[in-house]
Amino acid sequence: MQDTKTQDMVLLCVVAGMVIFAPLILAPLGAGYPDLMQSFAIFGVFAIGFNILFGHAAFLGVGAYSAVGMFKLLSMNIIPALILGVLISGLFALVIGYISLRRSGIYFSILTLAFAQMSYNLAYSVLPPVTYGETGLTVDFDDPRIFDSTPAGSSPVPSLFGMEMNDVFWTPEVFGYTLQFSYGYYVCAAILFLAFYVSMRIFRSPFGTMLRAVKTNQNRLSYTGVNTRPYTLTAFVISGMYAGLADAMLAAMDPLAGAERMQWTASGEVVLMTILGGAGTLLGPILGAGFIKYFENILSRINENVLEGWFAFMPDALGDLMVTLVYPFVGKGWHLTLGLMFMAVVIFLPGGLMDGAKRSVVWMRGKNRTEGAKKPAATPAE
Questions:
Q1: Which of 37, 110, 46 has its CA nearest to residue 261?
Q2: How many other β-carbons are positioned within 10 Å of the β-carbon of residue 74?
Q3: What pLDDT digit, counting tens, does each position of 318-366 carry?
Q4: What are the residue boundaries of the structural domains of the chain, listed by start?
Q5: How would DSSP label each residue in 112-127?
Q6: Could you count the other beta carbons within 10 Å of the beta carbon of residue 378?
Q7: Which of 76, 252, 282, 296 is the most buried (most CB within 10 A)?
Q8: SS3 of residue 224 by DSSP
């Protein structure tokens, strides 16, 4: 028990260090700017919730529409928007979960994906007077905003007690890199840390033990007389609230709600994040979200001009051939490269990136023990 508590404290310290020093860690990798770091944190929250019990993308859209609606009606302060996004997504998850959890396995997955696509179609083509269809719901100057008003000549910007989410408050130079510290990122980072802590408490609780048993073999539990549905429904609602929180955070950083976030493909992305990082682990979903969002950003920015610069040292014919061969895997084709990377991880690291980290630790320990055994014993001083 004491070892588990120690491991949890170490893990919390690791996560805290990662989110606090992210600008310093990510700047050398070309990812140390606020928008991308916010994306890491937000999709980390989404993946954590998905890891509790597989949910779906409909909750993303619900969270965003709720948050932007709050911006339009009450205030540009993000706290009411985040709270409403979580509550509405939780209610939505309760209704969908009550229906979907009457089936299990592949049938449950199909039902949740069907609800996601139905929600997308409703927002896109049936409820445009409310959702504004393909344009999306945005904040305007003439919105009522009962508790605050936008000064003349300025755009309404989400804020937290006067701190605007798009403000960069410090840009120091460290080791030749310009670091960007923004209010928006650290708000997202704080929420990510709290979301991780809550998921850890769930994981270590008797409720979390029951959820792991359900995931392992739900039929066997049913045969023993255990009613698993209350546990799965509760987990489904918690997962939906995490997803709603993540999308409310997206709206808090960029006040726009669009139907495209409800498409079933968004669920596919978070599945990749969770499996790539390590399904069933605490830290894995965060690593998977960061991995995918990082390579999405890096690979999508590589165009033909960049490739021509890379292969400029080659003869013209060979350089053109290399550009032709590589170009389908970058730019708009970055999904192909990510798919190949995902296949490699699944084949060689079935447990995801966390499995790779554990194997590396075991290998290093074994190597150190081998080297220690090879050293000759010290002779006693005469």
A1: 46
A2: 17
A3: 999 999 999 999 988 888 998 898 888 888 888 888 888 888 888 888 7
A4: 2-264
A5: HHHHHHHHHHIIIII-
A6: 6
A7: 252
A8: coil
Contact 267, 21 (CB under 8 A): no
Tell me which residue has tokens 């690291």. Answer: 349
Provide φ and ψ at 160, rounded to 5°: -130, 100
Question: What distance in Å separates the CA atoms of residue 49 and residue 15, rounded to the nearest whole number?
Answer: 16
Q: Is 31 exposed, middle or buried (0-12, 13-18, 19+ CB in 10 A)?
A: buried
Question: Residue 223: is it exposed, middle or buried by C-beta count within 10 angstroms (0-12/13-18/19+)?
Answer: exposed
**Number of Cβ within a 10 Å radius of residue 230:** 10
How far, in Å, CA of 165 to CA of 249, rounded? 11
Instruction: Give mean pLDDT, residues 181-185.
Output: 94
pTM of the model: 0.90
| Residues shown for the chain | 382
Q: How would you classify residue 176: left for phi > 0, otherwise alpha for psi between -120 and 50, otherwise beta?
A: left
Query: Between vectors from CA 254 to CA 296 and to CA 244, what angle results, nearest 5°?
Result: 80
Query: Which ranges constitute the DSSP H helices of the chain?
Result: 2-20, 22-26, 34-52, 58-73, 78-100, 106-121, 128-131, 183-204, 206-223, 229-253, 264-277, 284-300, 304-310, 316-326, 334-348, 353-374
